[in-house]
Design goal:
The structure is a homodimer.
Chain A (H helix, E strand, L loop, with lengths): L37 H4 L43 E2 L18 E2 L13 E6 L5 E4 H4 L5 E8 L16 H5 L2 E10 H7 L10 E6 L7 E4 H6 L2 E6 L2 E2 L9 E3 L12 E7 L14 E2 L5 E2 L8 E6 L11 E10 L5 E7 L7 E2 L1 E2 L9 E9 L4 E9 L8 H8 L12 E4 L5 E4 L3
Parallel strand pairs in A: 3-12
Antiparallel strand pairs in A: 1-2, 3-4, 5-6, 6-9, 7-8, 7-12, 9-10, 9-11, 13-14, 15-16, 16-20, 17-18, 17-21, 19-20, 21-22, 22-23
Cofactor (chains A, B): Mo-molybdopterin
Keywords (chains A, B): Metal-binding, Molybdenum, Oxidoreductase, Signal
GO biological process, one term (chains A, B): sulfur compound metabolic process
Chain lengths: ~425, ~425
């Protein structure tokens, strides 16, 4: 694209190279000056006849040109499809809401099919009155609506040892962000007569699938903002997201967001289940393990340009975009570096950060074919700054799988391609 | 369900009828006291083996139990499927975001399939430099993210003459609410050199389909908040919503949100096209017509209970819910009446109303089998109060098709069924 000719403001001349003055207008990147563009000058087939009716697909799917924008698995990462991870195509998305159809999901013994009529949720243990709720019961309690991100503790886990996976979908795609409608867990606990006077300081939650995926949650969190969600993005949860009801544990690791939730036991201590001992703990350099590492710390990633989204339009204006989030609350700032962290520019947030929800950021800039070491770093309302990989390794060593919230680097090459790299 | 026994607070006893004290717990609505519920006491098939892998459906669809939650047409309303209206199943949704797969769509000559490579957007007329943008060009401009409702001017149009369609999906389902990522129209106009010094006080916008659906928009609105949207709910627009780019005209009638937008002409006056003269004007009692009735006034509807969502769980607690919106800005209050508008209770808003976006409201109440004449009325930040049908008819007569934002009444019968009725 052409440089600013000096005739107008730089914005005015933003795409000046893409047009011919006067009547003979041209699309950017099209053939030379005077050739008429048939897409402009002739009536196209889609403007002549009738398009398709929509009744044939009453629940719509994306247009066929977008067939690449789908969840993807990493074959070597998990044993087989009954314990797989399907990553969100974050490289191709914008905004903040993740459509359910391409929202990441991870399961431990397959996605089960549980009808509403067969659904039961038991609350037992240290409560006045053990109870079982049907799905219809859940619908009768006052419910709330909140947008929250859900991130797997293992998101970016493959990157601890070095730059491995070549695409934001694979390095950072174990995350989604949806609007949940659900019943506060505190409401259900109160219904069962948990009064705060019992010894019950923890809840143990488990799902109806064969793995049961049991996890212990401190009562303080259970009473604070946990939801038993029955809708996501306005509609019923998808099968793979826990239909008909899942636990939402805002800001905390996705493994605790138990799907197909069937039981909540009030206890006097944590269970120390498989999913919180041999799994979902962080082995340090000295062989000891951090446990109860529930909160997902502030993190961000540039989604475009990135390995799956190279710069293909040549030099000139380019929009750098990505997303940021924090389990501690709101994102207040995101910085972008083009030189591997030596210098930083403050990105534009699409809207004010929301509590424990994805924030979209943009840096509207110009690329002149130079190489970039492109990074983003998130800062949340607590003042926490997303760390570098070196900083994180210094504290955690190299044995970890979970909770890698380090700054990601994409090497943008002079041909516009991008590659996952590390900077020292 | 049982009444409060007096042992606890009413919340504590909310569903007391649904449990047996001690060990033998029962689901609500299940058989009598001591019968064990096999869904609790025996290991179910879905907890024994493995569920389904998800890789087989990389772009996911709703679970088969939700196959009723789909867009629906009203056969007699439009001639055939090339000019049809497919209504959002608002009765079955919650929250505010409408999933694209079930979001209403209306087209005038079918939903066309237009590839990004074939897409062109021309800006011509009273501008310094006529321009044509490719899709790749659009992606290079600074973009914004906003959640907006889109309502067809004809939503509830069939109800002008009396209560006709028995379901919120059909009376109020020509609406959706999505998060758009797009380029401000003012940015594109500035790029083409519209300076405000020309005579260009209007834009005329048209789509690439055979209908072209041309509409005139005053420059003030074009510069204010219109977007050329390239994403909805984070992903590419669906074919039926205008892939790859549509105009977003926040708060104004959906017909102006031109899909597959191909041209924006800056003009010194409106075109007075078919779509803004013989259509999309409101014929009054004296035979004259109101024109330029662009803004969608404040409106609301109870989505549950409603004819498609009867009360099936018997007496006791029930959540009344619905949605409210205003083309003039934020919703500040929603009231609910159970007696056809004689008395009103203030509903709970799920979150603070947002500018020109859907607001979800709830009234957590108790139903004891009495008949209700259930209504909701929205109030927006301008102080405007949603009118009754009688008030609207007094001003507009009975000849109108468009802009019916009157209060809707559902007759809730003693058996829990609901019917579309009018109250005098």
């Amino acid at each position: 694209m052409a440089e600013d000719t000096g005739r107008g403001t730089s914005r005015r001349a933003f795409l000046r190279g893409s047009v011919a003055a006067g009547g003979a207008v041209l699309g950017a990147g099209m053939a030379q000056a005077a050739d008429p563009d048939p897409l402009i000058t002739t009536v196209q087939p889609w403007a002549q006849g009738f398009g398709d009716g929509v009744d044939a697909t009453p629940y719509g799917l994306p247009i066929r040109f977008e067939e690449d924008v789908i969840r993807r698995n990493v074959e070597w990462l998990t044993a087989d499809t009954i314990s797989s991870i399907n990553f969100t195509p974050i490289h191709a998305l914008d905004g903040t809401i993740t459509p359910a159809g391409c929202a990441f999901e991870r399961h431990h013994s397959g996605a089960i099919e549980l009808a509403k009529e067969d659904y039961r949720l038991m609350i037992n243990g240290l409560v006045e009155t053990p109870m079982v709720f049907s799905y219809a019961d859940l619908e009768r309690f006052p419910r709330e609506n909140h947008v929250y991100f859900c991130e797997c503790a293992a998101n970016s886990g493959m990157e601890w040892a070095g730059a491995q996976l070549n695409g934001a979908q694979f390095t950072h795609g174990m995350i989604h962000n949806m609007e949940y409608s659900g019943i506060p867990l505190r409401t259900l606990l109160a219904e069962a007569g948990w009064s705060g006077e019992t010894e019950g300081k923890w809840v143990y939650v488990e799902g109806a699938d064969a793995s049961s995926n049991g996890r212990s949650i401190p009562m303080e969190k259970a009473l604070d903002d946990c939801l038993v969600a029955i809708k996501a993005n306005g509609e019923a949860l998808r099968k793979e997201h826990g239909y008909p009801a899942r636990l939402v544990v805002p800001g905390w690791e996705g493994n605790m967001w138990v799907k197909w939730i069937r039981r909540i036991e009030v206890m006097d201590g944590p269970v120390e289940s498989r999913e919180e001992t041999s799994k979902y703990t962080d082995t340090l350099a000295d062989g000891t393990s951090r446990k109860w590492t529930w909160v997902m710390d502030a993190k961000s990633v540039v989604t475009s340009p990135s390995p799956q989204m190279p710069i293909t339009h040549g030099q000139g204006p380019v929009v750098i975009t990505g997303m940021a989030w924090s389990g501690h609350g709101r994102i207040t700032r995101v910085d972008v570096s083009k030189d591997g962290g030596k210098t930083w520019e403050t990105a534009r947030l699409a809207r004010e950060g929301e509590n424990k929800a994805l924030t979209r950021f943009y840096l509207d800039t110009v690329w002149e074919g130079e190489e970039w070491l492109l990074q983003s770093r998130a800062i949340d309302e607590t003042g926490y700054v997303q760390p570098t990989k070196a900083q994180l390794r210094e504290v955690r060593g190299l044995n970890s799988i979970y909770h890698n919230n380090a700054i990601q680097t994409w090497w943008i090459k002079s041909n516009g391609e991008a590659e996952n790299v590390e900077v020292s």
